[in-house]
Amino acid sequence: MDKLKHFIEANREAFENETPPEGHLERFERKLAVRRQRRTVLYGFSAIAVAATIALLLLFRATDGTDIPEPSFACETQEEMEELRLYYNMRIHDLLVQMKALYKDKQAPGAKGLMRESERVLADCHQFERTVLPTLPCSNDALFAMTQHYDNSLESLAFMLRQMEQITKNGEENNH
Question: Is 61 exposed, middle or buried (0-12, 13-18, 19+ CB in 10 A)?
């Protein structure tokens, strides 16, 4: 680094009088415009994906008998909190469906205990939504608390799913 600094100081005139090549600024501005267009398209696709996810969740909730009670929000972040809750409930539901399918198909030893624990995690989520969620303040702190709770629940369920997959894989290897 010292060599570079010394080189620049020794040749200061060459660096001070240097100008970018002709047309450089125009080319740079064109590249920025293309990046902005790509970002706009990406945001548009993201919005469509979020809307589709919410629609699918509402469809699943309409057909599933184990609905989680709707908490009542009365604040400016109501919509964001509700979308976050729906998003995490959908992800939890997906993991539970995968676990139930593995459990029903393979009936591996140890899988029953993992299913009981997954039901406990789901019960904790239900309790969080009934008791804690309605008491959270209308702020980013509430969104952070929700994210922390649901992330921990998802991480636990994903770990249990991996364990169940490992158990069933080992059971299949032992049978062959």
Answer: middle
**Cα-based distances in Å from 70 to 2, 13, 103, 125:** 63, 70, 29, 12
The span from the CA of 165 to the CA of 176, in Å, is 17
DSSP secondary structure letters along 41-62: HHHHHHHHHHHHHHHHHHHHHH
C-alpha atoms less than 13 angstroms from C-alpha of 121 in its C-beta half-sphere:
25
Does residue 89 contact residue 124 with C-beta atoms inside 8 Å? no
Q: How far apart are CA 93 and CA 99, in angstroms?
A: 10
Structure confidence by residue, pLDDT tens digits, 122-176: 888 888 888 888 887 777 788 888 888 888 888 988 888 888 888 777 766 665 5
Q: Map residue 1 onto helix, strand or coil.
A: coil
Distance CA 121, CA 119 (A): 5
Q: How many CA atoms, within 13 angstroms, populate the side-chain half-sphere of residue 161?
A: 18
Q: Both tokens of residue 121?
A: 């995690």
pLDDT digit string, tens, across residues 64-79: 545 444 554 455 677 8
CB atoms within 10 A of CB 54: 15
pTM flag (> 0.90): no
